[in-house]
């Protein structure tokens, strides 16, 4: 069994893959300091709670955008699982290539997303939209050439900015409002966050399609924790919540 771990700015998303299927999923906050022992206890408990014997984990793959936590997780794997994990870095072998022959400064999570998209939808032009703390857009040609992308703040980050940068606005539940014209401060913030994000994503998607693929067809794949909120907004061709886990699995086999 393969344990996949995606370390984001808000959450650590873990999945167990067996025979190319995700058999368990669980999350842990990545906010604040987390020791390797705390992570070890959490992972052992979460695996058992999901019916997975920790001794059956034979490989571990990690994508991380939080370097301090990467070191803790690597130590956790060595101490509690006696395994040396595969960690995505700039030397990782992948389907993606750049004209200069390097992975440039593309984050590990985005590399795994693209790899997962190629694994699930091979031989297609791809536009991948990941709804995390930040929303990332990545365009890749069907031959694997990276064509570029965009980054913007996600709804959660925008909400924190509103609450932290104003005296009278506070955090709200992020959900789609019934109307664009809210009648309370809460519904007005929800309108701005959710409907504003929909408009932003649709505009960037159209521009990226025109610039990168001209008249060629491309598949638009949505993923990320908040992606499901936008699943029915006619933005994606597919919503793949486990995209990054499949990408980690594919990269693990490619880099043995």
| Mean pLDDT rating | 93
Kindly report the name of the CATH homologous superfamily of the largest domain. ATPase, nucleotide binding domain
Q: Mind telling me which CATH architecture of the largest domain this is?
A: 2-Layer Sandwich
SSE string, helices as H and strands as E: EEEHEHEHEEEHHEEH
| Strand proportion | 15-25%
Number of beta strands: 10
CATH topology of the largest domain: Nucleotidyltransferase, domain 5
Q: What is the radius of gyration?
A: 19 Å
Number of helices: 6
Q: Specify the helix fraction band.
A: 25-40%
Shape: globular
Number of domains: 2
So what's the CATH class of the largest domain? Alpha Beta
Class computed from helices, strands and strand pairing:
alpha/beta
Describe this structure in words.
The chain folds into 2 domains: 86 residues, ATPase, nucleotide binding domain (Nucleotidyltransferase, domain 5); 118 residues, ATPase, nucleotide binding domain (Nucleotidyltransferase, domain 5). It is α/β, with parallel strands linked by helices. The protein is 37% helix and 23% strand. It is globular. Helix 1 crosses helix 2, helix 3 crosses helix 6 and helix 4 crosses helix 5.
């Amino acid at each position: 069994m393969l344990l996949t771990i995606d370390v984001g700015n808000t959450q650590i998303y873990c999945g167990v893959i067996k025979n190319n299927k995700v058999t368990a999923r669980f999350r842990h906050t990545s906010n604040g300091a987390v020791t390797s022992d705390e992570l070890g206890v959490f992972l052992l408990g979460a695996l058992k709670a999901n019916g997975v014997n920790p001794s059956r984990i034979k490989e571990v793959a990690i994508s991380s955008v939080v370097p301090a936590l990467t070191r803790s997780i690597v130590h956790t794997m060595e101490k509690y699982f006696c395994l040396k994990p595969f960690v995505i870095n700039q030397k990782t072998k992948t389907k993606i290539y750049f004209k200069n022959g390097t992975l440039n400064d593309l984050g590990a999570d985005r590399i795994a997303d693209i790899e997962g998209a190629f694994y699930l939808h091979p031989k297609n032009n791809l536009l991948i939209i990941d709804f995390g703390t930040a929303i990332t857009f990545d365009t890749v040609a069907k031959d694997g050439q990276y064509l570029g992308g965009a980054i913007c703040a996600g709804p959660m980050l925008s909400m924190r900015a509103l609450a932290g940068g104003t005296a009278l606005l506070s955090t709200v539940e992020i959900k789609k409002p019934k109307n664009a014209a809210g009648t309370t401060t809460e519904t007005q913030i929800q309108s701005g966050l959710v409907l504003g994000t929909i408009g932003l994503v649709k505009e960037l998607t159209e521009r990226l399609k025109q610039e990168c693929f001209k008249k060629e067809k491309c598949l638009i794949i949505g993923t990320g924790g908040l992606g499901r909120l936008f699943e029915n907004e006619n933005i994606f061709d597919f919503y793949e919540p486990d995209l990054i886990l499949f990408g980690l699995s594919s990269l693990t086999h490619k880099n043995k």
